[in-house]
Amino acid sequence: MANLIIDIGNTAVKASWSEGMTLGKTFRYQGEKVRSFIISLTEKEKPEIMVISSVYEISGPDEAAFRKECDKLLLLDSAHTDILKENMLPEYLTYDRAASIMAARYLFRGKGCTVVDFGTTLTIDFTDEEGRYSGGNVSLGCRTRFKALNRYSRALPLIDSPEEVPVTGDTFTTSVASGVISGIMFEIDGYIGLHPDNIVVFTGGDANYFAKRMKNSIFVVSNLVLMGLAIIADRYVKKD
In the CATH scheme, what is the code of domain 109-224? Predict the structure, then answer.
């Protein structure tokens, strides 16, 4: 029987069926009916284990509804930190970050990693050669920066990430674009420079956009979070 792994993020929900470490088709949902979306995934098949990682605490009614849809439910939110402690990770980490770290440990055993997730927030996390977590930072994501500039100023337009970005802007719009995009690139270069021997792993919605602009060698793993959740699900099966 397959497992169902779900990542509830700040702006979207991503889900996938998994068999061990192998991910199946990925589903994405942006909307307010998260419970209905998750239950819709189990209409044809009930998972053995349903793993739900969430940036917010799952409510009691939602938890009860999810338990009816699977043999075993594993909630990963701020109220359930046991998995973090078992994997030698600090309890303040959100589980999407924790899952990315666990997946990087698995993929790059014996190597230190710098994991960068380009989502609503920009997160940077570091592990050493033995897989020990050595800290990380959180900043505004690319689109969040564009929205913040537009919202908190009277004159700046709301723009999207352009394909071509000059290092320095030569028009009003390119000044905004370059300020955000080049700023993030300089930021990431600085973090990479802190641990130059680390493997650099990009994930998240804007990972490819920035990877092709970097001079460093980058590994892009689009479903790093889901891969980490699949690891957690697989270990949970074996532990039981």
Answer: 3.30.420.40
